[in-house]
Amino acid sequence: MSMLRNGFVGLFLASVAIADDATAGARLTFTKDVQPILQENCLICHRHGGDQIAGMVAPMSLDGYEEVRPWAKAMAKVVAARQMPPWDASDASNGVFANERRLSEDQIATIVRWVESGASRGNPVDAPAPKVFEDKGGWVIGQPDLIVRLDKPYFVKDDIADDQPDLTITITKEMLPEPRWIQAIECKPDSEVVHHIVGMATAPPYEGRPQEQFSAGSIAAGEDPIMYPPEFGNLLRAGTKIHLSMHYHKEVGPGTGVWDQSAVGFKFHPKDAVIKYNVHRGGIANASFEIPPHQPDWKIGAGEIFAKDTLILALHPHMHFRGKSMVYTAYYPDGTTELLLDVNRYEYEWQTNYIYKQPKLIPAGTRIDVMTVYDNSAAAKEKYPVIDIEKPVRFGAPSTDEMMIPFLDYAELDAESANKFRATGTTGD
């Protein structure tokens, strides 16, 4: 895919080579000061064959001075503006999420000062050892244990701009001879016209287990895959139907039609792993709203009370072009309040799945409120010319309509496990 975070390309195309005409002296250098920062925070994507988050490809490699130098000035701009690395949450959640992509103030200052002082190379002896990345075969979760594709290839016709079919994948006995517990799920587009995929699995009854429904993964611009900690998962078995809500988007015209047979990859827990908790995906959604024309800060809220002790594994804000911010707040039974997540710079082009380092315990009786803000003004129109700011906007599937779906991945606990988690931070023995 060629989708890029809004504003990123423009800044890079405006860059020029940095003159290196001052003495090295007390300057910061690339090898000693900047290269370690890039290795730790940027090369996961910005390298040859780097990770593709939901198919988004980094436009250049930053693996070495010769590759970095032409982009130095632009790099300083985007890190100073907090546009890179892509992470839209406020500082309130620093250190909370496992997939956090954030530079410290000192790291940002180092990059900016290095550029301002001439972007010198420095002594090669000071360079860190090359960072070795695991070959994941193009999958963020690593090579899956099982890869399944749409039952039939689907053709997006020449005269279609937006197509949103519901397609299926059937898990057969040949694909999966025995049931396995899912540890990670990643949807993988087969063509560049895939805008997003949302999967839901319906598993048949099995050895006393009833028919079950659970997430079969999702992918949108910049979205990380689903990954579950030990003891958490869903049981995949033969006969499961995976229903994929597809969204294709492309230009209209002769010869623009595209075949697609997108895939879902599963990694499994070890066969001897003890899985205690089924994972659910839900949304504290509001579909009954109307955003008036020319409103730059239109607020929409929703809330839900959790009847049981619950562990939240991940939070996933979802809005469309007009989305501006989303805040999750927990109101606990003892009267205290906690900010769970403040996405104060929501970007449609990078819809992050915020995965907790340690699952978050929500006691029974907790209410989680979500407040969203939308921009239906001239500023939004300038950013996304396809939207119409002259008419009210309501809930709808096209990106030019809006959505308010604050997703959560969660598991309900019994009283014993909840008490153990409060005491030890784990539900294990």
Count of separate DSSP helical elements: 7
Q: What is the strand tally?
A: 22
Question: Could you spell the SSE succession in H and E letters?
Answer: HHHHHEEEEEEEEEEEEEEEEEEEEEHEH
Distance between the termini: 44 Å
- Secondary-structure content class: alpha+beta
Tell me, what's the shape? globular
Low-confidence runs (pLDDT<50, min 5 residues)? 1-25
Main beta sheet: 5 strands, antiparallel
Mean pLDDT: 89
Cα gyration radius (Å): 23 Å
What's the helical proportion of residues? 10-25%
> What is the oligomer described by this structure?
single chain
Strand share of the residues? 25-35%
Secondary-structure blueprint of this entry?
Layout lengths: L7 H6 L16 H12 L23 H4 L3 H9 L24 H12 L29 E4 L4 E3 L5 E2 L2 E5 L9 E9 L5 E10 L8 E8 L6 E2 L4 E2 L1 E2 L4 E9 L8 E3 L2 E6 L8 E2 L1 E4 L11 E11 L4 E7 L6 E9 L5 E7 L10 E9 L4 E10 L1 H6 L23 E6 L2 H10 L5
